[in-house]
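Annotators were shown the component list below and the corresponding predicted structure, then asked to write short factual statements about the assembly.
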Amino acid sequence: MKTAMIAAAAPFAGANALAQTSNKKLGVALCGLGGLSTYQIAPALQKTKYCRLAGVVTGDPQKARQWQRKYDLPERSIYSYDTMERMADNPDIDIVYVVTPNALHLEHATKAARAGKHVFCEKPMEISVARCEQMIETLDKAGRKLGVAYRCQFEPHHLECMRIAREKELGSLRIIEGAFGFPVGDPNQWRLKKALSGGGALMDVGIYVVQATRYLTGEEPVLVSATEAKTDPVKFKEVDETITWTATFPSGVIAYCATSFNAGPLGHFRAYTDRGWFGLDPAFNYSGIKGMRSDGKPLEFPQVDHFATELDAFALSILENRPTKVSGEEGLQDVKIMMAIYESIRTGRAVKLAS
Amino acid sequence: MKTAMIAAAAPFAGANALAQTSNKKLGVALCGLGGLSTYQIAPALQKTKYCRLAGVVTGDPQKARQWQRKYDLPERSIYSYDTMERMADNPDIDIVYVVTPNALHLEHATKAARAGKHVFCEKPMEISVARCEQMIETLDKAGRKLGVAYRCQFEPHHLECMRIAREKELGSLRIIEGAFGFPVGDPNQWRLKKALSGGGALMDVGIYVVQATRYLTGEEPVLVSATEAKTDPVKFKEVDETITWTATFPSGVIAYCATSFNAGPLGHFRAYTDRGWFGLDPAFNYSGIKGMRSDGKPLEFPQVDHFATELDAFALSILENRPTKVSGEEGLQDVKIMMAIYESIRTGRAVKLAS
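Structure shown to annotators:
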């Protein structure tokens, strides 16, 4: 451990050196082998240019064997949560992608950082502001990069919407409408257990809308006001089922948003300007994003693999030693806003955010 | 006056008698000859089955002449706001359609009632709860019918949405998203003067969304929470520019809504159930309403003239001596909710509504 800590804190070795140790592609260890890793991230890692699946961390030995066989992973790159700090001795692994339940992100990111690895962390970053801050500090002290898996920040339709907003191509932004939700299945999943998830629909999918309102405006909200509705107090005993919220931004833009684990599917945004609108519907799916503009011009781009794209972007930021677009601070900011949304629900009052 | 009051308070003469006095169609006097009367209501009255344009009330003698010529109106059916109570002696006029600025509705409805006429009143009914209640009482005492011009309540796409919601054809309602707004033109119009309008975007167009959330759920909201945004404090010195609000209903349905005088155009609603959705976009335009359902089935109906349809429905309710669907109480309820929305903005708190 001591050695690993010292190694991690040492000045960054340089992009080329790191890349060379892993066949020019950075090695990614997937930490947490649930549905997202299985059906989205691992397949995506077969398509990436700058990184590759190099190892796994799982609490399930049987899963470990399956993954080892399927992806032809070396024995030494298979870890449990208890052994993952041994990664310090494994030059094949450069990045740990933390895909465990929200409340375990800090623990697993910390172990990865102690092993001298960069961390790419699923959203939401963690379940409290303090834990996000701790993760940032830990990675910072370890001299390793921290990225949060905000796939939409690299998706062409979303990027085009940011451009239209920033260049005021269809006018000045006034109102953003956004929603993401679906009827959640298995009542026993960790997403419905507050100790693991920190919250329900908002933490899991509402966060996409929180993000979108920020990257569309390019601003931070100054006031949020929120309301909760619960129709199934058994299934949603511990976490939020449906939340709507309003966020106001310094320029006067106002966002009105919804998220739900028991409605829809719903997943779109539309940005209204002083003379038109543009938006995506569906906006947040893994594929099939569709754009529309009030002037009838196309808002169409090739569909990309969201996970491959965000992973390559993070790997490149390491290889080129540049700041990542989806920093820990970015992840922290969304958690701050979500905590203010929960506070507004608890108190029945609009909540001011530090600007 | 005295005579008119006594006549008005007398038992209702009977549908046939009234209809016969006006060539089987009820005579409608348009009170207020602005854009809505000129471009929507008067043309609609050429298409109605159960009523016809029989007179006008205007403060502008030149307009009076123009309308008289254009619609071949008899001299005695041309009134000013000061002379309209003389309608008591004019059997050609059965209904006064009040299309004046919001804060004048009570005055003009009262004059019409005193002249023994039924009143059809533009939305919003009036600018305060007390003034709405006074209008209801006045018409009630006069023994005359009062209807509020909620055209969507008679529009086939809206009726179909109410049916889908009520029959749970696509599941149980969970979330309603709704918005109506547009960039308002002339900065000198009465809609921007609080003394005449009582409020801005919310009173003028947001009311459509308030209505829609009520007729889709079939319930009254129990809690509203609202936020205002203002980007042009000169143009919108007296009234609201943009408002977003949330309304929660007893069954757990939650509505998140927006209205604006400085964005869009925006004008749609979508109702999300526990397993799908349905909605209209555009929803509130005078024509071109389009429906969509999550199951891909059509939600299409012939386009109707909204004004002709609502006027015929009101006329029929008089001819058949039935309650109107769009009663004064219906108008009052929306004003109560809008006042709660303004209160929430003022106080920064969620506001409970009497259920």
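Statements collected:
1. The interface with chain B takes residues 172, 174-175, 177, 179, 181, 183, 223, 225-231, 242, 244-246, 248, 251-258, 260, 262-266, 270, 272-277, 294, 348-350 of chain A (CB under 8 Å).
2. The two ends of chain A are 40 Å apart (CA to CA).
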